[in-house]
Amino acid sequence: MTNLKQVVDKYIEKLGIGEDIKSSTIREIVRLVNLIEAETGIKYIRMEMGVPGLPSPQIMINAEIEAIKSGVTSIYPMIEGDAQLKKEIARFAKLFINLDVSEENCIPAVGSMQSAMALFLTVNRLHEKQNKILFIDPGFPVQKQQCNVLGIDFTTFDIYDFRGEKLKDKLESYLKTGDYSSVIYSTPNNPSWINFTEKELKIIGELCTKYDVIALEDLAYFGMDFRYDYSQPGKEPFHPTVANYTKNYVLMLSSSKIFNFAGERVASIIVSPYIFDKVYPGLKRNFKIPKFGYSLIYGSLYTLSAGVNHSGQIAYAKILKAVNDGEYNFVEGVKPYAEKANVMKRLFFENGFKLVYDKDEDQPISDGFYFTLSYPGMDGNTLMKEMLYHGISAISLKITGSDRHEGVRACVSQVKPEQFEDLEQRLKEFNLKNKNK
């Protein structure tokens, strides 16, 4: 693909990406590939952006249409959220996580992006000195960008070498300094698709209790560890969570991935009842009432958006009710991601690639929304460019906080099964060109 190489190099230079392409953001890679496709007419195997690739459930579409027809678009939504949605979030927490929370503790947000933003605004004002956030990486790059925009200091470490019992000493080395208000991570993990084990969640929970730190658990891909069936309401296995091991938790759930409802920007925050009404004197500096839940809702969330998409909340409530009542199996609805990942990983493995993050302690990781790749002898810059030269796009692990700068993150959602043949051919050409270097 000599001509394609010339076009790729031209736009890398034109966009000012330079030689360090592995530091490019997700949106920069999206723009780059859009320009290359427009000029060449070549359809890329696009793995750079984690967007849903399945249709929204008809239940949600119908519910939103009916809500719009009923006139909710002319009415401001309540800041604390639609009452029916709050009820169904609390039911979902009990039925699928075995977690007892009240409706008051369940708060809609404008996507998990806003959930994180509002939580960052709140948790870092709880104490005068505990004003840093600790990221257990790799993780979603934009959350760190949010901290930068807010002027919040943060620290990161890569969990790659600290799985299982090794996590304890590493995590405690940070928390014992007394500098941290919170620790944040995602499970299933974006980008590596690792899942934190019960041992690891127990370590996080117990240390958060010991050092009065809040665990911010991002569950955007809830239930998508397909090694286990988390789809049956009120039946084991329940979804793993740090909430089993500490009262200092906030969970973030999203409708974007598990319900393919990304466009309406509706998510939910579940706050531990213990911290919801807890008084934190530090909050008096910025909020009217120094209780965590009040400050989060009527301080942070209110000033960010003054409520959440009204019709979207009603649609979200409708699908959660169907899930809670056992009428809709949300796990079955997203299994095509795992099926695609299984095929795609096989094609990469057959052509010399290896997984970077490959295990949860001693278990192979699940097939799912993402996986991570490296190629022998290549650093991240070389790998990303060579993939682009062969009509394949991905993002670097460097921007996710990973120390494995030789790797890339692949997302399966935008790749269609009818593209598998093209992917196989392009990978064969890639391997033929590079295997003896």
How many domains is the backbone divided into? 2
Tally of individual helices: 14
The structure class reads: alpha/beta
- In terms of DSSP E residues, the strand content is 5-15%
Poorly predicted residue ranges: none
Description:
By secondary structure, the protein is of the alpha/beta class. It folds into two domains: 2-54 and 330-434, Alpha-Beta Complex (Aspartate Aminotransferase, domain 1), CATH 3.90.1150.100; 58-324, Type I PLP-dependent aspartate aminotransferase-like (Major domain) (Aspartate Aminotransferase, domain 2), CATH 3.40.640. The chain is built from 14 helices and 15 strands. The protein has helices at residues 2-14, 26-40, 58-69, 83-97, 111-123, 141-150, 166-175, 198-210, 273-276, 292-305, 310-324, 330-350, 380-389, 420-434, and strands spanning 45-46, 106-109, 132-137, 153-158, 180-186, 214-219, 249-254, 267-271, 354-355, 359-360, 363-364, 370-374, 392-393, 395-396, 408-411. It has a seven-stranded mixed β-sheet, sandwiched between helices. The chain has a four-stranded antiparallel β-sheet with strand order 9-12-15-14, covered by helices on one side. A two-stranded parallel sheet has the order 1-13. α8 links the parallel β5 (180-186) and β6 (214-219). α1 packs across α2 (26-40) and α12 (330-350) packs parallel to α14. The chain is globular, with a radius of gyration of 22 Å. The mean pLDDT is 94.
List the helices and strands and how they pair.
Blueprint lengths: L1 H13 L11 H15 L4 E2 L11 H12 L13 H15 L8 E4 L1 H13 L8 E6 L3 H10 L2 E6 L7 H10 L4 E7 L11 H13 L3 E6 L29 E6 L12 E5 L1 H4 L15 H14 L4 H15 L5 H21 L3 E2 L3 E2 L2 E2 L5 E5 L5 H10 L2 E2 L1 E2 L11 E4 L8 H15 L3
Parallel strand pairs: 1-13, 3-4, 3-5, 5-6, 6-7
Antiparallel strand pairs: 2-8, 7-8, 9-12, 10-11, 12-15, 14-15
Helix pairs in contact: 1-2, 3-11, 4-11, 5-6, 5-10, 7-8, 12-14
